[in-house]
Amino acid sequence: MLKHTGKEFTVKAPEDAPAGVGFAVPMVTLPEGYTISQTAAICQAVGKAVGLAPADDGGNALCLQLLMDATDIGTEMGAEKPKERIDKWMAHFETKLGDADYFVGNTLSYADFGLFPVFNLIEAKKALGKYEGYDMGPKLTAWLDRMKAVPAVAEMKASGIPFLPASFM
Question: How many domains does the chain fold into?
């Protein structure tokens, strides 16, 4: 999101994180001076700070729900929940997209940037022969392709920096 919106930022080593914020990265220190952890909270705070938040409370509530849904599906897939359960999640995300290009209408939001890593990981694991039989559906697949075409996302993917350590794949 920072790269997408042209904001300057500095990446620091995990050992440089302030004590007491969380026990693991990611963490972010915002210009106002406070530091937070947890991916969903970071997505929301940064999204609002860089202009990727919906203008209304309902849109922001939807973004937050989607980020929590992303956490849930990631947890359930990691716990190897039954395929039927994951299929329900995939149908849920297809429904949430509706006829829009992105999850909160036809404009990128912090929800899209927060959801991208989850579905990118699913696609990457499928390419390794894992998650066989899981179908993201046509709307999710089209959305993922749109996200991969966002210049900042494309740059990140082309960087050669692994999405996750090999041991997590």
Answer: 1
Q: Which domain holds residue 88?
A: 57-160
Q: Consecutive 10-residue runs of the chain (169 residues): their mean pLDDT?
A: 96 92 92 94 96 96 96 90 91 94 95 95 87 88 97 94 77
- Residue 139 inside a domain? The answer is yes
Could you tell me the CATH number of the domain that includes residue 131? 1.20.1050.10
Domain for residue 7, yes or no?
Answer: no
Question: What gap in Å lies between CA 95 and CA 89, rounded to an integer?
Answer: 10
pTM value is 0.93
- Residue 23 located in a structural domain: no
pLDDT score recorded for residue 58 = 96
- Asked if the structure places residue 167 within a domain, the reply is no
